[in-house]
């Protein structure tokens, strides 16, 4: 076996492994990108949370006011 053939084999194996590694990295990046784009559908935004909590607090305030009115009678 001459040196040129050994060099070609080593170069072919390293090219295959390099291509496989690049493919795995790009696949992982694509998956992360998809996960990040799905975040608004999975989690509640801060503004929506604050608006919902304000509504809940307003409803609780009305309930407590009615209870206080009942206790006075």
Protein described:
With 73 residues, the chain is mainly α. The chain has helices at residues 3-42, 46-72. The chain is 92% helix and 0% strand.
What fraction, in percent, of the residue positions are helical?
Answer: over 70%
- Percentage beta strand: under 5%
What would you call the structural class? Answer: mainly alpha
Rg estimate, integer Å: 31 Å
Give the overall form.
rod-shaped
Count of helical segments? 2
- Mean pLDDT, all residues: 91
- Report the major sheet: none
Low-confidence stretches: none
- End-to-end Cα distance: 105 Å
| Quantity of strands, as a count | 0
Q: Order of helices and strands, N to C?
A: HH
How would the blueprint of this fold be written?
Elements: H1 3-42, H2 46-72
Record keyword descriptors for this entry:
single chain, 73 residues, mainly alpha, 2 helices, 92% helix
Quick recap:
The chain is built from two helices and no strands.
